[in-house]
Amino acid sequence: MNPLQVAKNSNKDLLQGFTHYSAEQQNRYDEIWDNVPLWSVLTDNVKLSGDQIAIKDDVREFTFKQLLAEADRIAARLLQDKLIQGDRVVLQMSNTCDFAISFFSVQRAGLVPIMALPAHGIAEIRHFIDISQAKGYICDGGKDSICIAEYLEQHSNSITHIYTAVPHTKYRSLTGIGNTPFTPPKIDPDTPAIFLVSGGTTGLPKLIPRTHNDYLFNIKSCVQASNISAKDTYLAVLPAAHNFTLGCPGILGALSLGGKVVFSNEAGPDYCFELIEQNGITATALVPALAQIWTEAAEWEEANISSLRLIQVGGSKLSYSDAIDIQHVFPNALQQVFGMAEGLIACTRIGDDPETIAAKQGCPISQWDEIRIVDSEGNQVANGEEGELLTRGPYTLRGYYRAPEHNLRSFTDDGFYRSGDKVRIDENQYISVTGRIKDIVNRSGECIATDEIEEHLLSHPEIAQVAVVPVPDKHLGERIGVALICKDESLTLQDLRRFLQTKQLASFKMPDELNIVYSLPKTAVGKIDKKKVPGPDGKPWMFHELN
Ligand code: OOB
After folding, report:
1. Which residues lie closer than 8 Å to 303 by C-beta, 6 or more apart?
2. 37 near 189, Cβ under 8 Å?
């Protein structure tokens, strides 16, 4: 078969199970999409600021020119090794320069990466491969990823190419391979450039195809909404493969402007504050639990972190009291970001009044985002009322990859994505997230939103983090379990109830059981993972057996 035919067939395979934007959307968005490959965020800057540092970690740094040269060297080799345009590869890298190098090499080769997070284990990686029929697994070469590589070697029929970023005795390494001149294959910007993985806390993650056009639009709109510029240095501290860190505006946003990205594999304030001081970091993105830790640490850490002017916080609900604390310690730096790998991003804007920034999650990054808020019947609610957020737009998916059954449930007939998030929206289009549709305890038929109780408990001065979970109960169906991290371990269930009574909470919403813990289980990106929250016996509370 000639190479052109091979590329065509491979793209055909890639597009199987991919839902395109509708023709009507395609027409409308034509004027706002750039129609170039995602890798142009890098190549555009090789021309403009080629000799400036683009990426840095604790051992190495690369200019824009060097980064592109490295990426192209590896891309040439990947294609020589008989991977072909449109092939899927699972990319599982930690936060080092190798993340950016391997990401761009895959992009330049026209391969489509599945953006696995370092915390994903064999179950998730196997699932991504089963769905996508990926041929390649590219990993950082750390202990965990080598275990996965060994597993895939033995058990996967689809994986034929395994590469590690650092030299390894058994696997091909990305270092020092290939030096042939390289011309990237022609790319159709309306086809998937990357697969993000869904962040849901139930079941295995789904694959989210993001096209060159849609993701570039996402990045550029986030750049505008967060006012970053070529002068900014972005600290990638949450996993680089997560949408927030990668493209909101994140790593790709900073690079697209000719700015610099510093990678950190550690998230603790002692390590990161040093990095901020040494590199004059100006911007970063954190989940609420981490933002809370950094804010407390800023009171006693000695490093000078005054360069930090933008702290984006998102991924789960930032409590009002934590937002106020952040604003107090980092004046004017907080930006709340409500986003999803599926698409829609909303954020507050630097310059909004501080009360709005503390209390709301922000408004959509583009005027092209369409938002509908509906009740349980699917009817639009009145302005200001609470309901489920549905959305459609130039960077929101039209279907999960190869998941027809999920897609029937997750999209309306006219292509709106059902986010499962409960929100209300004000007259300025600012969104307040009030919870998840399904995050409820059904106690004797009363449906109680867990986030309402959580929000109240977080305003208790002794309580640092909390998770309210439904616990199976023989008589009630479900009872209300509260797991919390607390400065005062002598706090009792009675104390909690008394406190909640002062908040005028109805009696059927009072917690039934309390478990004080030292830490709460987190998802791959650092959100509280309710499925794993332990009961008093240490076992996952939501799945306690009835006896
Ligand atoms: C981000 O993306 P995912 O895909 O890991 O998770 C999306 C879900 C949302 O549907 C929502 O339930 C929750 O995470 N979420 C928030 C939130 N930001 C995300 N809930 C309350 N307040 C927020 N600020 O988490 C993500 C992607 C891009 C940017 C930021 C976050």
Report:
1. 273, 274, 276, 277
2. yes
Residue 392 clears pLDDT 70, i.e. is over it: yes
| Contacts (Cβ under 8 Å, ≥6 apart) of 306 | none
The mean pLDDT of 141-157, rounded to a whole number, is 97
Specify the ligand 1 atom closest to the Cα of 361: 24
Whole-number pLDDT of residue 178: 63
For the CA of 199, the closest atom of ligand 1 is 5
Domain 3-423 classification at class level: alpha beta
Q: How far is the CA of 340 from the centre of ligand 1 (A)?
A: 5
DSSP annotation of 509: G
Residue indicated by tokens 């006012």:
227
3-state secondary structure of 220: helix
Per cent of the chain over pLDDT 70 is: 97
Length of the chain, in residues: 547
Measure 533 CA to ligand 1 centroid, in angstroms. Answer: 19
Cα 66 to middle of ligand 1, angstroms: 34
**Closest ligand 1 atom, residue 362 Cα:** 24
Domain ranges of the chain: 3-423, 440-543
Average pLDDT of the chain to the nearest whole number: 94
Query: CB of 18 within 8 A of CB of 195?
Result: no
Counting atoms of ligand 1 from 1, which one is nearest the CA of 336?
A: 24
Cα of 320 vs centre of ligand 1, distance in Å, is 17
Question: pLDDT by residue (tens digit) across 270-326?
Answer: 999 999 999 999 999 999 989 999 999 999 999 999 999 999 999 999 999 999 999
440-543 maps to CATH 3.90.25.10:
no
List pLDDT tens digits, range 59-101: 999 999 999 999 999 999 999 999 999 999 999 999 999 999 9
Within 6 A (CB) of ligand 1 lie: 198-199, 243-244, 248, 314-317, 336-341, 345, 361, 419, 421, 433, 436, 525
Q: What is the pTM of this model?
A: 0.92
pLDDT of 3 > 90? The answer is no
Residues 485-496 have a mean pLDDT of 93
Which helix (H) or strand (E) covers residue 151, if one does? helix 143-155
Q: Which residues of 65-99 are buried (b: 16+ CB within 10 A; e: fewer)?
A: bbbbbbbbbbbbbbbeeebbbbbbbbbbbbbbbbb
Rounded to whole angstroms, what are the CA distances from 425 to 148, 358, 374, 476?
A: 44, 15, 12, 34
Pocket test for ligand 1, best of 202, 219, 226, 316 (most atoms within 8 A of CB): 316
